[in-house]
Design brief:
It comes from Gossypium darwinii. This is CBS domain-containing protein. By secondary structure, the chain is α/β, with parallel strands linked by helices. The chain is 38% helix and 16% strand. It has a 4-stranded mixed beta sheet. It has a 3-stranded mixed beta sheet with strand order 1-2-3. The chain has a 3-stranded mixed beta sheet with strand order 8-9-10. The longest helix has 23 residues. A hairpin with a 5-residue loop joins β14 and β15. α7 packs across α18, α9 packs across α17 and α9 crosses α18. 39% of the residues are buried.
Length: 407
């Protein structure tokens, strides 16, 4: 078992992946927002080198300088929305967008790590279990000299670093491979998840339906790091829905005003399915006026220029991220019926392989665990799933070693 996995190089899991689009850490938050809006990428990577235009005279020196390029972080629209939600930034979003993008990159934690293309899948799994969320893998392009020549002709392009292009190796890539090799792990894969000690029941990111949406901001920041979402629960602890960073990635920046003024349940309706209801848009505007947040109000009403917003969250991403099913549900004592994305759930007695397939089918890195009456029990993530496979590999190796040792 371990031999086949150890022989699998991470480059094999990156075949066909697009090269990372990137910006320098000297770019601004506004630069990142513009780049994300113009591309189909969910994330933009940031590197400690400059990707400007060079003259012919400078190209040789520039190539040498870029040999030390390192990816230092990644940013998505949800990161920018969370940044704009801060009171001082909501007061003047235009100035906030001029801040250096480095303000969005966590100061603690090692969430992005480089790994050589010939590294094993097991090495990559170990990094994930250490807390790394994304791994950067080089994409080979011919020999060293041809790469240097190619880079000299493409210095202004944002996908080249160190005479190479790079791609993300994600947790989803690794879990998908493990599912395709599930016969090697059949004894562990069929076990219920509540017998495997992988359900997080202590540190669940959740807020109440009637809580201010702004109370979810610290949890959203953590969820962006851990690639999960914030659960919305009712007074009985039942799961109603979620506030998903994936959904926020397809919203315009004016949703920051909604987060600052609405309840968690109202925000769930605001960001759901093709745009917020007109009454919620008006409610946000009224509350912005009450708080004298004139610049934030202008952000909502401005529908032209580079910073334009359309007060909508496109629904085209729903199928991609598995949040396309909707229901109408009355929640608690609220008079509003909330149309929402159905949070993906499993039960404590669900098998590991069933939960893995469920997450992969919906393109998410986690599944909520609920009781039969939909009471929120916990959350299980790809990292937790990989822990079981890694332990199975270790147990298998230990068993082989014991068989070979002299008695």
């Amino acid at each position: 078992m371990a031999a086949s996995l150890l022989a699998r190089e991470v480059s094999d899991l990156c075949l066909g992946k697009p090269a990372l689009r990137s910006l320098s850490v000297s770019a601004t938050v506004g630069d990142a927002l513009t780049t994300l809006k113009r591309s189909r990428d969910n994330y933009i990577s940031f590197w400690n080198c400059n990707h400007g235009h060079f003259s012919e005279v400078d190209k040789v020196d520039a190539v040498a300088a870029l040999d030390d390029c390192r990816c230092v972080g990644k940013v998505c629209v949800a990161d920018i929305i969370g940044f704009l939600c801060k009171e001082e930034n909501l007061s003047n979003p235009g100035i906030a967008l001029q801040a250096p993008v480095s303000v969005l990159i966590p100061k603690t934690g090692d969430f992005v790590r480089h790994l050589e293309s010939n590294a094993s899948l097991v090495e990559a799994m170990d990094l994930i279990l250490e807390g790394v969320q994304n791994i950067v893998i080089p994409m080979e392009i011919g020999g060293k000299n041809s790469r240097k020549k190619l880079l000299q002709n493409n210095l202004s392009k944002s996908t080249f670093h160190n005479a190479r292009q790079y791609c993300w190796l994600t947790q989803e890539d690794m879990v998908r491979y493990l599912v395709n090799s599930i016969s090697l792990f059949s004894s562990a894969a069929v076990n219920p998840i509540n017998s495997l000690d992988i359900i997080n029941v202590q540190d669940i990111p959740a807020v109440h339906y009637d809580d201010p949406a702004s109370s979810a901001l610290p949890l959203l920041a953590k969820c962006l790091e851990m690639q999960t979402s914030v659960a919305i629960i009712d007074g009985d602890g039942k799961l109603i829905g979620e506030i998903s960073p994936y959904k926020l990635n397809y919203c315009d920046e004016d949703v920051a005003a909604a987060i600052a003024t609405l309840s968690a349940g109202e925000l769930m309706a605001y960001i759901d399915f093709g745009g917020p209801p007109e009454d919620l848009i008006q409610l946000v505007k009224e509350r912005l006026q009450e708080r004298k947040l004139v610049k934030a109000l202008e952000l909502m009403e401005d529908d032209s220029g580079n910073s334009s917003v359309s007060s909508s969250c496109p629904s085209s991403s729903d199928d991609e991220f598995g949040v396309g099913r909707s229901v109408v549900k009355s929640v608690g004592n609220s008079a509003r019926s909330v149309k929402r994305s159905e949070a993906i759930v499993c039960h404590p007695w669900s098998s590991l392989v069933a939960v893995m397939i469920q997450a992969l089918a919906h393109r998410i890195n986690y599944v909520w665990v609920v009781e039969e009456d939909r009471t929120l029990f916990g959350i299980v993530t790809f990292a937790g799933m990989m822990k079981i496979f890694r332990e199975t590999i270790e147990d298998h190796d230990l068993g082989k070693a014991l068989k070979k040792s002299p008695t």
